[in-house]
Amino acid sequence: MNELLLQTIVDKLNKVDEGIRQINSAAPQMPDYTEQLKGVDASLEQLKADVTGMPERIKFPTAAVYKLSEYLEMNNDLLKRPPIREVKHHHHVNAGVIVSACLFLLLVLVCVWLFNTRSMLQDYRAGDIKYRYIQLQAGKQLRPFLSEIDSLYHAHPQLFRDSVVQREEQRQRIASMLLEAQEKEEEVIRLRNKAGKIR
């Protein structure tokens, strides 16, 4: 039985050899793709390595997201409590502005002084014209009196001025006392009339 088995195996191997020969005889007509297949094999190996490493590259960046969320919480906290800023205004005034302001004030003061001086001069001129008019219009009895006044003024001008001022003040006091007395008399009359109505 061994021989029979052996013979069957040999026959089968012969048929396989003949099939291989037939395939080999047809094979030379087919192009040789071994180099291309090696290249494809290398590409597949590279692709396989890339695909196996992809989970590491596509991995969700939890550490970065955690750090970002910490920064966002800090920023939210800062936005809830904004820092208080003190605003200090510094006004820088130029020396030219100061000098211009001083010169303007000086000009205003000079104008006011000139206006007051002009006003006083007009008063003096008016007084002079009035005095000269009185001298021209005065009768014979008034001219010696005006000459005497001129003499007194020229002899002691300060004393003459003081006596005139003193007399004016005395007249003012008398006028105010008379006005006060008149007001009190009117008050008495009013009170008498009121008392008469009450009876």
Give a verbal description of the structure.
- This protein has helices spanning about 1-25, 35-60, 60-80, 95-135, 140-155, 155-199.
- The longest helix has about 45 residues, at about 95-135.
- It is mainly alpha-helical and about 200 residues long.
- It has 6 helices and no strands.
- Among the domains are: about 100-155; about 155-199.
- Helix 5 (about 140-155) packs across helix 6.
- It is rod-shaped and about 195 Å long.
- Keywords: Coiled coil, Membrane, Transmembrane, Transmembrane helix.
Order of helices and strands: HHHHHH
Report on the biggest sheet: none
Which oligomeric state applies? single chain
| Low-pLDDT segments, ≥5 res | none
Q: Number of helical segments?
A: 6
Rounded to the nearest angstrom, the distance between the terminal CA atoms is: 179 Å
Structural class: mainly alpha
